[in-house]
Records
---
Amino acid sequence: SLILVALIAASSVVTYAWLTSTGTSDSINYKVGDINYTIEGPQVADNTYVVPGQQIASGFVITNSSNIETNLRVQFTITVEDANGALKDWTIGSNNSTDELILTLNTNWVLDTDGYLYYGGKDLEADDVIAASTNPSSPIAGLQLNGALIGNDYSGAVITVQATFYAKQDAYIKWDEMGSIDWTTGI
């Protein structure tokens, strides 16, 4: 009976054999694309004073040094301080009955209902992208005061037009998916 117990104990021992092998793939290197634009201008008229109907800007010089395909949009911020120091709200566009600043766009630029000018439009097609190192046209062909809305009551007013350009990589993110960060709070 002791032999039987020993045989039972011996049969419960299990032998494990681990068969392993390792291998390493070749390295794959990736480079992150670079979006890089410089903006100069617009070329402003030499006159100290401007009058309605006079062209006051002739465009921006946009240099694209990006190494990937990109999309580009522009937002204008306008502040007007009249001779008494009061701030006025003005709009920019092409409607003579509502816009104080009349904007003439260059080819390929579209003013969307969200207030941005988009190169090729907001809903882009394949040919609306800006190829790497290809310089897009200026968004504005002309900018002038609307004489139908701007009269002597604005004599001496100071008009400040600021253009903010936004560039993003093409195809992998949409404009409405882009967020913003408050660098002060990190949110």
---
Amino acid sequence: GSEAAEVTTELVEAFARLIPQLSSSSPPPGHAELMEIVASATSVLLVASDKAGSIVGSLTLALFRVPTGLRAWIEDVVVDESARGAGAGEALVVAAVQRADAAGASSVDLTSRPSREAANRLYRRLGFEARTTNVYRVTLVR
């Protein structure tokens, strides 16, 4: 996985294809939203490309300081259905962990639905361990 340093038409089109495979309730980000992510000091947008150079996956690494240290959080991992099983997800997660380590984070967190069996196997294989913690969410009405 490599960092997306600029927002191109290809990047916008890739997210239009990828995000519906990740979430049926969230619209894909447009140019402005992707610019905000790429320009942010606290988020790193990583993409994986196939041999032809087409974007087939992405994840966002959030890095932020809290009183207990630098936190690293992986969000929105998605690999195109047509490219699954070819190593793009692994490349993205490994790149994110390396980036978090280089930034000084002591750990990297992520969440994954139990139904995403292949993703959960990948995370465990890469050294992630399930934590005994509750995850809570409040949904804000827009």
---
Amino acid sequence: MESNSIIILEDAIIQHQTEPLLSNVNLQIDKGEFVYLIGKSGTGKTSLFRTLYADMPLAGGRGEVCGFDISNIKKSKIPMLRRK
């Protein structure tokens, strides 16, 4: 059975260089959902997005975007992820 989730994060850790920005992130977004991400400057919004499209590595936890495991995605698969 196919999952309706396009983004799943479980206990994810998002960090910039060596500085953790977000920890224990649990997020699930299903197909067809419309989601806003708001917050003050410097709170990790851009880092979260960069992690979702594999521009920054997931520092910990589990992450899946459009069926791709972003916690250990191969560089050759990143263009396919970004197209989806």
